[in-house]
Amino acid sequence: MGVWGFYISTLVIYFGVDLLSGISLNLQFGYAGVVNFGYIVFQAVGAYAAAVVVLGPSGGVASFQQYVFGARLPFPIDLLLAAAAGALLSLLVGLFSLRRMRRDYQAAVLLIVSLIAIQVVSADVPLFNGANGLTGVTWPLGQIFGIAPVPNSWIYAAWVLAICAVVFAAVVWLSKSPWGRSLRAMRDNEAAASAMGLNITALRLQVFVLGGAIAGLSGGLLVEYIGAWSPGAWGYAETFVIFTAIFVGGVGNYRGVIVGVLLVPVIFLELPRFLPAIGYPGLIDSLQWVTIGLAWMLCLLFRPRGILPEKRLRARRPAPISVAASAPVEGGV
């Protein structure tokens, strides 16, 4: 496989990981109205969880880095634990931040949690090797099939897309279920939803934990591919890239999420790389974030509902009862 083949397959893998992030955030924000500015923390904990359960003990070959737990579990148990770690952290954070708080306060608390988490992980070396992060995460398909990562990245890309398809189908089904309609009712009018008997706190916590599990899964998939993870990979700005994607694509529309993720994290972030070297060193990298900011502002100005807006929910009328069916049976009591 040539350089371009490896580059395109890598983009496909990143697209799949970002799509999982978009699905998760769209479920939380687009359907439930939970503004999760700390989303990247839940992806990071999934990446760390998947890493420490395949690296083995921190002594011996891995003595150059320190981390907790340390095990050698087979694939795909690491992905299951990554999703579980994201769900568990979401449960703990949600119990604190989602109870009896307004939405704007919740968003501020989650942003503060992400900033604190980055500082704690960077400073506490025995936890996940501090600011240097973890490296040496084994290629998962090499354990099973004995194949190298570089010439066979398309196989991993297919694996990531298959997981995306399963998660996408499951989340769309949930969003169309009575539970999903309850989320939309809560998002649109909390007071009315509460008056109808919906438990607002429980709904928020449920969707927060489910979104956290998907975030942890995406982190596990990413760290398996790149083989390393550090605090520099999960700054709070990464969360706003995914928010931009779902705003551009269409909040509350999962097909719009696909379009937004394809445009923002993949195309918009990659196009500046092909520009000729101009200006001062680092200008091209800065243009990536300028592009993201412009995309969000232009979307809010000219297309506030996104490229594919959320469809209006239409309830079906119950079928009319025929006169013959409602008439009493002759001879009946």
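The record above closes out task 2.4. Task 2.5 opens with a second protein, given below.
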Amino acid sequence: MEQVLARTLPAAEIAPQRLHAAMRYAALGGGKRVRPLLVFAAGEVAGAHADRLEIAAAAVEMIHAYSLVHDDMPCMDDDVLRRGKPTVHVEFDDATALLVGDSLQSLAFQLLAQYPLAQDAHKQLEMVTLLAVAAGSRGMAGGQAIDLAAVGKSLSLPELELMHIHKTGALIRAAVMLGALCGELSAAKMLKLDHFAKCIGLAFQVVDDVLDAEASTATLGKTAGKDAEQNKPTYVSVLGVVQAKALAESLRQDAHAALAGFGDAAQRLHALADFIVLRNF
């Protein structure tokens, strides 16, 4: 995935050099690459070719990287550390960080439009729409808006779930569905994959909340304890650590159950569900 991103991102020597260097700084050299892994794993279930999957995976990862750059800016979470190194606005400047996010987002859609990724044009347009919705006000950006509005407030569990279905879950769901759309699956199996994706998308955020409360900055590669410091509602603040971990485990089991009937082709999806929930616990 690192090689694919290095190839699809503009070279640092191409003008404007500082912007392109910052884009590469933001997207390369760190991160778990969970979303690209999900694209590949879902594509394996659907019998998709790797040449298609790597482009879809790069597009999803660029959207994710852009969201992290903007999320870390002073007007959002104002963080100085990401993936074990200074955040983009610290390493470069605020204006460059803003343009990095804008440029990574547009490049993601350029990739989805530029390369043949599906069996027909209609399905490829469906992929573009899927990622656009997942990244926009009905997905990730909308979830971030809800998150910012919730600082210092108490949310119920359903309200918290609604926020994170948008903020974190939407892009994870898009990764799974884009991988599947690069191949061929029945409508019934697509529904099962969609349920799997929704379970692990929510579980991912539950685990993130627990890790923010329990893990060290060195382990996370980003500043630990920021949620409590900023008085944000989280699964830990609403449920407590023990019940939050129990919820993550329940979601993991639901995700595994959703893959019943896929056989050995879903082995990587099963492994990723385990990784998402069990990482650093």
